[in-house]
Amino acid sequence: MSKKFYTIFMIVLLIGISGCSTGDSAEIEKVGLLVPETVNDGVWGTKGYKGLLKIQSDYNADVFYKESIKNDTSIKQAVKEYSDDDVTLVFGHGSEYSGIFNTLSGDYPNMHFVSFNGNATEENTTSLQFKGYAMGFFGGMTAAYQSNTNIVGVIAAFEWQPEVQGFIDGVKYQNSETELIVEYTNHWNDQDIAFEKLEGLMDQRVDVVYPAGDGYNVAVIEKLKEKGLYAIGYVSDQSDLGESTVLTSTVQHADKLYSVVAERFANDELDSGNLEFDFEDGVISMGKYSSVIPDDFQSEMKQHVQTYIETGKLPNGKESKQ
User: Fold this and answer.
1) What is the largest CA-CA distance in the chain?
2) pTM of the prediction?
3) Could you tell me whether strands 230-235 and 273-277 are parallel, antiparallel, or unpaired per DSSP bridges?
4) DSSP alpha helices (H): ranges in the chain?
């Protein structure tokens, strides 16, 4: 074999090896995101956008997002446009996408559709669900511990939210004498209704409120701060809104969950159907505790969370309901 021929042979061989290695590595080329409101809300929508950007960084993927996509007509149009752009992974950042994703999935077999808190029924659809009961339980314990009036309130979006029942049970576990008042807005984003509910709670001497709706929780916490009352933050660690106001937060790390989903998708391991995630998956946590809460109670709560991660048992000895 001549030296020249050997050199050419080795170059071809190395290129071939390199090509095989690239083909075997996990990759995602194009990802789309749909949000019902905006990516600039500082809470739920922002977390979805951050998750999308993390996928872009990790996989050098092309990413697309569309805001204010909240009805079937706009969702169908957005999915069609993503299909034209050869998007293969689509996140619908909310429960409103689950049903229409099931309907559209057969028309776009090369796409995998991911939504939240819905019922995914097709081969290329997945619904992600945070197991919110435990985080609500820990938030309720904190609220009951810190309440001076022994009257605690919840302004929730919908009755089905597992974190709301968890909060109720956590309050009662911590202090069975605590009175609990629960109000529902029946909407994630209606600040006017949330403010009406808040006025009613304050009239009844509530001094700790859990605003469990990502579209109005920041505004409600600001109102509570003005009145010198307490809050349990929701979705994000909201201690930056006022450390003496926000006792702690029940945090859902949707941005981290995007990375979990992307890794599974890239490795052809993303299951269809409804998938649940909790503290042990690293996508739910409690936020920073306020300095108004004694160190010994903070330590106690952190140990409760660690025990739950390790055993699945809550402080009452029971397993999380949802």
Assistant:
1) 94
2) 0.85
3) unpaired
4) 3-24, 44-59, 72-84, 98-105, 133-146, 162-174, 191-203, 217-227, 254-266, 295-311
For the segment 144-200, what is each residue's pLDDT rounded down to a tens digit? Answer: 999 999 999 999 999 999 999 999 999 999 999 999 999 999 998 899 999 999 999
Mean pLDDT on 274-282:
96
Q: Are 222 and 198 in contact (CB under 8 A)?
A: no
Q: CA 158, CA 250: separation in Å to the nearest integer?
A: 17
289-299 pLDDT per residue, tens: 999 999 999 99
Strand partners, 297: none
Q: Which residue has the tokens 């009844």?
A: 204
Number of H helices, E strands in the chain: 10, 12
Distance CA 203, CA 103 (A): 46
Q: State the CB neighbour count (10 A cutoff) for residue 248.
A: 26
| CA neighbor of 236 nearest in space, from 201, 195, 286 | 286
